[in-house]
């Protein structure tokens, strides 16, 4: 491991993080309210190191890696600490797997035929495909309760044997898998309440899933969410809900169920079933995905402004500002509640 020369500096308006990776320093600038999750996202996007491959060695704190035990850890709180990043890019993982595969083929050619006991070997081709056809970034909504639990849920979907098999077969690579805010995708009228379960933007650029119950404190049935993910992956190929779409959707569902050799079906939280649920309204195209944005057509979160065309760092800054605003509002409400007469 290269000598660590990294550090973190903070100012009143921003936090500058410099970390060491393979002996080379990399600097990132964040808003003052940025967290360790923001640093993880930046590393995944700028250095192409997927979150499951990331390990941060921080002096006096030790080893931190996603999903973090404390995803709300402020970057400003680790000022002046040395940081080493350990992790391989997706390209490096593929290269190592290919090299090992080449060595195995060579050894098999030159080694004389021997009668040996059967033993397990790595399926290098499968591992290469799983590294390529997958969800590159997993992103919970950091302003909702327990984002680390949502990240674990998203990781479980990514690691699901059936999902991995279907993505390999259809060669699906999804840059971002994230959760949706239930309140932004729930509509009520005189006929009842309708809840959207998932969204696919720009044919697989982003897939959003309703993980939580309406109260935010519980999680929905795992197999129901997995079936919704199958539905959204079918939108990678077909946008409208026509016969082509439904044929592919049913095919993916069967493939996922058939490859599900693990126990799979229990939920992470309490199961909750609803009436008037819809998978989605078809694959949506156009615009840019923004953390916390609405379902389609640039509908924004309550109290936010349009973020279309903003860079990733601008989006991070805006998200941090909104988190700070919510904290201040919540603090003011708590003080107001405590000042009333008994």
From TrEMBL:
Residues 295-342 are annotated as: Disordered. It comes from the Eukaryota. InterPro entries: WLM_dom. GO terms for molecular function: metallopeptidase activity; proteasome binding. Residues 126-325 form the WLM domain. Keywords: Hydrolase, Metalloprotease, Protease. Residues 333-342 have a biased composition (Gly residues). Residues 301-310 have a biased composition (Polar residues). Residues 311-329 have a biased composition (Basic and acidic residues). The keyword Lipoprotein does not apply. The keyword Metal-binding does not apply. This is Ubiquitin and WLM domain-containing metalloprotease. It comes from Hyphodiscus hymeniophilus.
């Amino acid at each position: 491991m290269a000598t660590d020369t990294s550090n973190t500096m903070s100012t009143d308006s921003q936090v500058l993080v410099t970390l060491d990776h393979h002996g080379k320093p990399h600097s990132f600038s964040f808003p003052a309210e940025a967290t360790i999750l923001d640093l993880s996202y930046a590393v995944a996007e700028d250095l192409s190191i997927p979150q499951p491959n990331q390990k941060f060695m921080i002096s006096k704190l030790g080893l931190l890696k996603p999903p973090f035990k404390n995803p709300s850890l402020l970057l400003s709180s680790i000022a002046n600490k040395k940081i080493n990043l350990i992790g391989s890019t997706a390209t490096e993982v593929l290269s190592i797997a290919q090299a090992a595969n080449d060595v195995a083929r060579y050894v098999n050619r030159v080694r004389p035929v021997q009668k040996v006991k059967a033993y397990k070997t790595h399926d290098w081709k499968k591992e290469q495909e799983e590294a390529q056809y997958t969800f590159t970034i997993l992103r919970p909504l950091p302003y909702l309760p327990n984002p680390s639990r949502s990240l674990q849920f998203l990781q479980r979907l990514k690691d699901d044997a059936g999902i991995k098999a279907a993505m390999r077969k259809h060669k699906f690579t999804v840059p971002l898998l994230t959760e949706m805010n239930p309140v932004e995708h729930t509509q009520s009228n005189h006929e009842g309440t309708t809840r959207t379960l998932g969204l696919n933007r720009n044919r697989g650029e982003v897939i959003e899933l309703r993980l939580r119950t309406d109260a935010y404190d519980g999680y929905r049935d795992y197999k129901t969410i997995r079936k919704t993910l199958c539905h959204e992956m079918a939108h990678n190929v077909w946008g409208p809900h026509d016969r082509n779409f439904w044929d592919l959707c049913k095919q993916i569902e069967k493939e996922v169920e058939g490859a599900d050799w693990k126990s799979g079906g229990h939920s992470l939280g309490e199961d909750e079933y609803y009436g008037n649920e819809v998978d989605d309204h078809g694959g949506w195209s156009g615009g840019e995905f923004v953390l916390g944005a609405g379902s389609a057509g640039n509908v924004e979160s309550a109290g936010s402004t349009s973020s279309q065309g903003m860079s990733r760092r601008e989006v991070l800054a805006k998200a941090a500002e909104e988190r700070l605003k919510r904290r201040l509002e919540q603090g003011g409400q708590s003080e107001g509640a405590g000042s009333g007469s008994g």
